[in-house]
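Box 4.2: Ligand-aware structure prediction
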Amino acid sequence: LAGCMAERLKEEILHREKLVDVVAGPDAYRDLPRLLAVAESGQQAANVLLSLDETYADILPVQTSAGGTTAFVSIMRGCDNMCSYCIVPFTRGRERSRPIASILQEVRMLSDQGVKEVTLLGQNVNSFRDLSEVQFQSVAAPGLSRGFSTVYKAKSGGLRFSHLLDQVSRIDPEMRIRFTSPHPKDFPDEASVLQLIQERHNICKQLHLPAQSGSTRVLEAMRRGYTREAYLELVHHVRDSIPGVSLSSDFIAGFCGETEEDHLQTVSLLREVRYNVGFLFAYSMRQKTRAHHRLQDDVPADVKKRRLEQLIATFREEAARANAALVGQAQLVLVEGPSKRSASELCGRNDGNIKVIFPDAELEDAAGHGAPGRAQPGDYVVVKVTSASSQTLRGVPLYRTTLSRAAASH
Ligand code: SF4
């Protein structure tokens, strides 16, 4: 058993259940050869120690799905935020960032392999700080988004996420860049992440802004470090800075102490922001968390379920409206492959990360080079949207193009 489940359930697994031979926590993968040797000798082997600096920077992953069009690149590990419901700081440890040089090397390798979309991955990507280069260790701490606070002291030094994003986006003009998950607190005005997204044609105009609740009282109990008003102010700032940005979010229904009034505040936030993509869950208490020690999981299961269903229904209605606004527009779609439902249709994603389905037909190339042909995975196709639901767009393909050409024609 490997990863943060191993870290969380180590006692039960090793001592009580005797279910597995090897338990490796998320920072113990370098120790796997030794652990496997111990297991081969007939004993149980475990290493669940968390590290302050392990980022696996020097280990480049081997792509097993050769020919894939999209890839994830891990840029940091752990989290220091200590939201009261969250187990991550306990299972993945403290926040640490991978050196930029190693991230760039991996992205270059993926570009050489023909990957057309990279998602930079971490628990808190926009608080990225690469401390590996001495000359940047004393850089001043950037501020936080207006109206946001943290439980930890401001950290100074290191190369920031805006620097990484700038460098990554320069590697391959035909490669789309996304990132997830940022934390809403780390969009200070002086850092230029929002500006970069607005300016660079290959950084997708899509942002995940996890809200978790629309009630200031619940946000306080969750220790999220912001009020409903501060969050909404950030949403307006993001929409002003990046016109047409696609927004996604996470929400928890039925957190400790959540009243009907709190819940309705979340419903109204979903209406007000109108997200394109949402991840919604009913609260489930985790041992070790602050909520487990200090709060009561007092919303009955049937109430949680009903509130979650209401949130999902509201989210879907609003997402359907947001997506309906795209009907009639041309969207640039990166083709991923045949659609699951029909071999005569292709499936891909637009810049906002919404699934787009369209007929697999002979298409001209925008530049007029070569004979018409069918779009292949990894091709960019301009699709005119003809219908939309809360999760999918459908349309007719117009022509094949490239990311740079599509940007130049706007
Ligand atoms: S919810 Fe996200 S930001 Fe909060 S502690 Fe968990 S991983 Fe960190």
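In the box above, the bound molecule is iron/sulfur cluster. The chain has a mean pLDDT of 90.
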